Amino acid sequence: MSSDGETTPKAPRRSARDRKSVKPFVSLSQPTRKRKRSKVDNGSDTEGTDGERSVASEPEKDTDDEGLEQEKQQSDEDEESESEEEYKAPRASQAKAAPKPRGRPKATTGATKTAKGKAPTKPRATKARGKGDGGGLVTGDLPISKDNALFNALLNPSAALQSVVDDYFESYSQTPSAALADLANCILRACGCNASIDSDEVLDSDNVVDKLDDLIEAVKKEAAPAYPLVSKHPSYKKFRKQLSELLHRLIQTAADLPQPSPLFPASDDTGLLPVLQPWIVCMSTSLVRSFRHTGTVVALEMESALCEVAKDVEKEGEVLGRQREAERKRRASAPGKSKGKTPREKELDTKAEDVKKRKAVLNDYLKEFFDDVFVHRYRDADAGIRTDCVRELGKWMKTHPTYFLSGTYLRYIGWLLSDMNTSVRLEAIRALSALYTSSDNSTILALTNFTERFKPRLLQMAAQDSDVGVRVAVARVLTDIDTQGLLEEDEQAPLCLLVFDVEARVRKAVAGFVRGVWEASVEEKLQGRNSKGKEREKDKQRAGVKCLLSSLVEWIKLADATSNTPNEAEDDPDSSQQPSQTQQPSGAVVSLLLNSTGTKSRIALAVSALWDELDVLREWNALLDHLLLDHSGGSGGGVVSSPSKRRGPSLEVERGGRKRSNGGFNCCTWMRAGRDCAGEK
After folding, report:
1. Is 427 exposed, middle or buried (0-12, 13-18, 19+ CB in 10 A)?
2. I need a labelling partner for 595 at 20 to 30 A (CA). Which of 206, 357, 507, 589 fits?
3. pTM exceeds 0.85, yes or no
4. CA 363/CA 365 separation, integer angstroms
5. Which tens digit of pLDDT belongs to each residue from 137-150?
6. In this structure, how many other beta carbons lie within 10 angstroms of the beta carbon of residue 431?
7. How far is the CA of 191 from the CAs of 200, 241, 579, 597, in angstroms?
8. Residue 165, number of CB atoms within 10 A of its CB
9. 346 neighbors 398 (Cβ within 8 angstroms)
């Protein structure tokens, strides 16, 4: 009885296991539909408790899925062998409705790939792009009228823009209002607007806002996909460059024409900038990006052209000033002294007065464009517009420093150092780099207050900026700042820590700065020594090695200190005494290089970065001469033991009956790093 009681419950469990294990074999040997019916029957026979039904229902679902897959596989085989048309539709529908179990047969995967391969998605997408209906931003031509000669010249890269400008001013001399309307319409075409203004509307400065609102509403109805400044169509590939050149030539040619010229008119009613400036400023404040971006670019380019003209006028004034002074001295030294001015002096005075008036007019133009456009657009929501603003501001400071190189304008670059966009920060750094590399002492003097104000931000960017390119650019700017003597000694150490940075580009960028710090420390150590010839070279090598190793130790200790979190310092009861404990004697300086965690990798990074900058790294004799010294008896005064004590007890360890020098410094890491650098070169 006991045996019967034991065997009776085992039978259904074996049948359940057998049912599960038989599934794949039955599906391969029997027809698909029969196997599915038999499995359903078996499932109905083994109904028991609710828990057993729930367990049995899952194999049934898997069996149904496999049945569908086997049916699809069988239909695929029949379709390939007999080529029957009635099985194509079920095959496509089953391919879509088939589930995606993990262990699908290879035949199912191949069928799925075949079904996907028949979908003509890629040809349709290519066809749509070729038409240019919805892809106007990429390849479609813009629906802009070609009814403006100036705009057509911008679309022709081979056009002689100076000839176009000469023809324009010839037309301007005959009908100024019509010529100004043509230039305004050219700017409208650059905005993607096909509407035009006539010669009367362009002179009506009181109706500029209302007229532009009407033009903008017309553009909104057209729903143009793009505008020339951002279009990717080949016709507009060089549009920005052509527009910049045209505006520069217009301003320069207008300034060179005889007075009164379009740039310095006798009346503001027909002046080039007095008429166009309200239109450009109003465009730059539009809510429509095409008008706002184009108006801002035109204003910035005109400001750049005005800076060049103002620079020429300033030089002309300086020359006239020297000529007037020479004439005054010549008249004073003449034998027959006359009280009145000579005709030459009167002529020079007249020219100087004219230069003064033109300079005042140019300053007014510069101030109006800056206050009405730049001040509002340098913080525009569009990062591209902000980038254009800071780039052009850097050019203005380089071209016309007497006007723009002051704290009033430099602060805008400093504020943009904290911009959220990477390209804006990078352009701000590039603008500063062009200024700090200047050899003009007046430029460096003008940057002193700015440097003191924004130096902490620059140091922070060099160490923590999210973009590697920005960090590299900031490191180079800080190197230029240190070259000009504007970086304090306590501000050099945080920058020197970048020689251990994980980014190779950052280490390479800061290598020049580290070299400058090292050279300064070597010169300081050699002061007071009167050695000459070969002895001086040896002293310089020893001082170079010692300064390099001491600097590395100092930077490693600083890196370890900055990497500790405040919580760790609070948990340590002896944290308040650590500063006094870390004052190691110079005898332990060399051993510290490789005794701390992560120091071996730091040494390798530093050597690889400084290999091309410091020749002392290749002086193996000088390096080993210093590394093999007995540093155990060094004092706290920074003096190591003499060479006569090189083989102290602490330097020798037993190894196989022979003694070798250890010295507290594992030279292998240093030599391995140098060998790797030499191998890469």
Report:
1. buried
2. 507
3. no
4. 5
5. 333 467 888 899 99
6. 23
7. 21, 16, 64, 60
8. 22
9. no
